[in-house]
Amino acid sequence: MAEEVPRYRRVLLKLSGEALMGPAAYGIDPSVLTFISKEIAALRRLKVETGIVIGGGNIFRGLAGVAQGFDRVRADQMGMLATVLNAIALAEGLQKHGVPTKVLSAYEIRSVVEPFVREKALSYLEEGYFVVFAAGTGNPYFTTDTAAILRALEIKAEIVFKATKVDGVYSADPVKDPSAKKFNFLTYEEVLEKNLRVMDLTAITLARDNNLPLMVFNMQEPGNILKAVLGQKVGTLVGGGA
Ligand SMILES: Nc1ncnc2c1ncn2[C@@H]1O[C@H](COP(=O)(O)OP(=O)(O)O)[C@@H](O)[C@H]1O
Ligand SMILES: O=c1ccn([C@@H]2O[C@H](COP(=O)(O)OP(=O)(O)O)[C@@H](O)[C@H]2O)c(=O)[nH]1
């Protein structure tokens, strides 16, 4: 096998919570968790320092809670707790596949996970741990996409990989519009102007203001996470030059 040279030294991987559901309508599918854990474990041999933010949409979404009559802040707190469940599950899956992993949570739940402290995250990454950042930003009215950009900036990751259910950014939501066209490269301004809703606007704006590149790709395709870290084109690159 040809020598694999990673393109990046430190990356932030954003995983959609919904992707953990598999074919079910709710929760964590054990076979999907195993698949994702193996995909991420493949990065270990590259010695790429890896931070991970995972969503919570497979368990609870704040806005869905609001639609059911919950107060927005309370509902968002429930959503953030949902991401802690996913983070623990993912860390367990990764450990099982030989990846030393730490979970750092924006919510203090000290008897379960360590609280997020930026310096601690940096030390763990330098020591070779994969670090899963749980509980989003710790604040309501935000999303885990914004948390991913925020943590990437804090740990000085070179890129954010948004691993999701679609294989890139399209001219419209490809799930709803089969005639939508895929882009290979977009500037942040194009994403904002064309209102391409693959990430929320707060996340895109924060990435733009700090010139942090993003790549959106399908994580259900085996090998994609590894290819992305090796610098191969697997989806749509936003920012960072073509
Ligand atoms: N222009 C677009 N290009 C690609 N995907 C889009 C676009 N607009 C909306 N989407 C949707 O964004 C989703 C990816 O976001 P993600 O955060 O992983 O999921 P969710 O928001 O459901 O938790 C895709 O599944 C896709 O349906
Ligand atoms: O910093 C954050 C991150 C997440 N959430 C809440 O946690 C839920 C799950 O996060 P995710 O980003 O997966 O939500 P989605 O975008 O899929 O609704 C969201 O709906 C929000 O209610 C929040 O309030 N603040």
From TrEMBL:
Protein's UniProt keywords contain Thylakoid: no
Name of protein: Uridylate kinase
Catalytic activity: UMP + ATP = UDP + ADP
Gene Ontology molecular-function annotations: ATP binding; UMP kinase activity
Domain of life per record: Bacteria
Keyword Translocase tagged: no
Recorded family membership: Belongs to the UMP kinase family.
Location of the protein in the cell: Cytoplasm
Function (record text): Catalyzes the reversible phosphorylation of UMP to UDP.
InterPro entries membership: AceGlu_kinase-like_sf, Asp/Glu/Uridylate_kinase, Uridylate_kinase, Uridylate_kinase_bac
Entry binding sites for ATP: 14-17, 57, 61, 164, 170, 173
Main enzyme class: transferase
Gene3D superfamilies assigned to the protein according to its UniProt record, in alphabetical order: Acetylglutamate kinase-like (3.40.1160.10)
Regulation: Inhibited by UTP.
GO cellular component terms listed in the entry, alphabetical order: cytoplasm
